Amino acid sequence: MSHDHSLNPETMPQHPEKATLEGKNKFLGLWFFLGGETVLFASLFGTYLALKNSTAGGPTTQELYGLELVFVMTMLLLTSSLTSVYAMYHMKNNDFKKMQLWLGITGLLGIGFLACEIYEFYHYIHEYGFTFRSSAFGSAFYTLVGFHGGHVLFGLCWLSAIMIRNAKRGLNLYNAPKFNTFSLYWHFIDVVWVFIFTVVYLMGKVA
Amino acid sequence: MANNTKTNEFHKEQNKEEMKKQLITFAAMIIFTVIAFLIVGTGIMSKMMAIPLLLIMALIQVAFQFYYFMHMKDKGHELASIMIYGGVWAAILTVAALTLVIWW
């Protein structure tokens, strides 16, 4: 256990997430991954923009979208971005319990977002008969927004895995980079959502 | 040990200052979001005016997210910037290519 002890000094360094080589590597690796994710989502955005008017007689973007639910979803995800900043703030102050608490709130907000999205898709399918197979617009819409929802779901699984796995360990130099990596990923999901609510919903409503 | 506590206090104070900036960032992002939804919800602007404005506000929000929430303004983020801007460059080309093919 002496190995564990060496990773958990009495006083944590100022940046526990980047104090070890592994932490530095995780940090760089995640940014590399996010660069790739940017291109992945760009291809889905480009496809959506190219096909959004190919409705095949189905509802248009203006008829389909409702701003109220999208606004609620935006607020949920934006707030969860702030709560994960709070979690990282407590990580830097070496306060494990508060970090877990704020991460838990982040997760709950993420679940709230996902529930709204499932309701939204359910609403489109049952009220408008608008499905993945309705039109090119349908395919592009569900692929883009669904891929983002899938990222939220993946983030929630990731978050619960590291929260449960490290619940009894407390904060140390081994798991601090893991929490930090997750928080960066979570912010990126919010970045993608900013473009989705702007390009898909708001621009779809004015056009 | 006493010295350690002192530096800890200093770091805690620094973290607090940082957190204040994060809260201001968050408030700014909420304001931008509300304005964007109001523009579309009230329909006070023509399409030609609204769309560029919405895109500019989205870009500002994303910059806040990257530079403040994800700490890209801090030291030691040179490689991170290269990676994300590399991704953004490829992303612009991708969106441009996919939207240009439907122009005629």
UniProtKB/TrEMBL annotation, chain A:
One of its GO terms (cellular component) is plasma membrane. Residues 28-205 form the Heme-copper oxidase subunit III family profile domain. Keywords: Cell membrane, Membrane, Transmembrane, Transmembrane helix. It is a multi-pass membrane protein. CDD domains: Ubiquinol_oxidase_III. Belongs to the cytochrome c oxidase subunit 3 family. This is Cytochrome B oxidoreductase. It comes from Ornithinibacillus halotolerans. The lineage of its organism: Bacteria, Bacillati, Bacillota, Bacilli, Bacillales. The gene is ctaE.
From TrEMBL, chain B:
The keyword Transmembrane applies. GO terms for cellular component: cytochrome o ubiquinol oxidase complex; plasma membrane. GO terms for molecular function: cytochrome bo3 ubiquinol oxidase activity; proton transmembrane transporter activity. The chain crosses the membrane at residues 23-44, 50-70, 82-103. GO terms for biological process: aerobic electron transport chain; electron transport coupled proton transport. Keywords: Cell membrane, Membrane, Transmembrane, Transmembrane helix. It comes from the Bacteria. It is a multi-pass membrane protein. It is found in: Cell membrane. Belongs to the cytochrome c oxidase bacterial subunit 4 family. This is Cytochrome c oxidase subunit 4B. It comes from Ornithinibacillus halotolerans. The lineage of its organism: Bacteria, Bacillati, Bacillota, Bacilli, Bacillales. The gene is ctaF.
